[in-house]
């Protein structure tokens, strides 16, 4: 018994006996912290689809919202990036003119996670709020990890552009403030057939996410890129609670039955 | 009140979006959303699949009774989207007589994007879109 007790003491003293996850999860401090966090449970989707019946019909309210938000999000590019922007536009317009029946595919069909910040657009979403991390999950396969455990972004030599980038956050009352860097260096433009506009390695997002009421979560964005933008872009998105469905079913498995392939740079449809 | 607007025209107005509703699995630019075509035919196959469900439907040539029917492939949303509108994997079966309204492909191929499907019982399949739904 003495030997066993001595061994246990040694393990504890040297830190060899780690706390188990269950102990951490149930610690008084963690439980108290958890209880103070907002409840964002449930399923959510972009309010922009409210009133949209079949992919082509929008309510007047939805149209008004989309126009207002698009205007609010209009980036002001620096001369260098304005030139890039106009060059992309011209090339797409030329491709459309060359073959109006087969519109150019300015990006591949999205199978799996759309890149941040477009992550919030298609599908239905869940927010999992814990003291250490808020996780965003979508039915099109996007998973964002927003770390709220006090960590900083990794050093630059450990970062590279990824779909979701690196997100850290903290709570200001019921608002989650998120700082995101190291995303793919591009933003999505809804013009023409839709395309991604290249941005610099300075691309940086700040979000303030909060529940407006029981049925709405709002995300206020600030997009900064001192190399590509003359001033930050401010925008917002609102998510509405899903009330007619209770299962997260994935919807972007293109290996199963992809019939809209991109061929020679243009969208095609396999009818048989 | 609903306003019918082609997505392309809408995006022309909504010039720049950081996260556009059009950024789904793929663009819908290959469909002419200013036009609708009504197909009256027989279901050959109902594909309840990701990323999109498809109906293969045989449409007889009304002007030539001896001509072989034309097979159309018409595209819908993902299963999860259709479920939200009341569809099920067994909503259609081979041999079902259907009437399908589609936005046709621009290039003239026998294909399109489904607007509505009326089943063998003469009723539109699925309930009206719930707020927020994207299907079919």
Structure characterization notes:
The complex is a heterodimer of chains A (272) and B (136). Helix content of chain A is 23%, strand content 28%. With 272 residues, chain A is an alpha+beta fold. In chain A, strands 1-12-11-10-7-6-5-4-3 form a 9-stranded mixed sheet, with no helix packed on it. The N and C termini of chain A lie far apart (76 Å). Chain B has 136 residues and is mainly β. Mean pLDDT of chain B is 79; it is low at 1-23 and 130-136. At the A-B interface, β2, α4, β8, β12 and α6 of A face β1, α1, β4, α2 and β6 of B.
Text of the CATH class of the domain at 30-118 in chain B = Mainly Beta
Q: Strand content of the residues of chain B, in percent?
A: 25-35%
Compute the CA-based radius of gyration of chain B. Answer: 16 Å
Separation of the first and last Cα atoms of chain B: 20 Å
Looking at how many chains there are and whether they match, the oligomeric state comes to: heterodimer
Helix content of chain B: under 10%
Shape of chain B: globular
How does CATH name the architecture of the domain at 30-118 in chain B? Beta Barrel
Number of domains of chain A: 1
* Chain-averaged pLDDT of chain B: 79
SS class of chain A: alpha+beta
Count of distinct strands of chain A: 14
Spatial ordering of strands, largest sheet of chain A: 1-12-11-10-7-6-5-4-3
Please identify the structural class of chain B as seen in this structure.
Answer: mainly beta
Distance between the termini of chain A: 76 Å
User: Judging from the principal axes of the Cα atoms, what is the shape of chain A?
Assistant: globular
Question: Measured on Cα atoms, how large is the radius of gyration of chain A?
Answer: 23 Å
What about the largest sheet of chain A?
9 strands, mixed
List keywords for this structure.
heterodimer, A: 272 residues, alpha+beta, globular, B: 136 residues, mainly beta, OB fold (Dihydrolipoamide Acetyltransferase, E2P), five-stranded mixed beta barrel, 10% helix, disordered N terminus, disordered C terminus
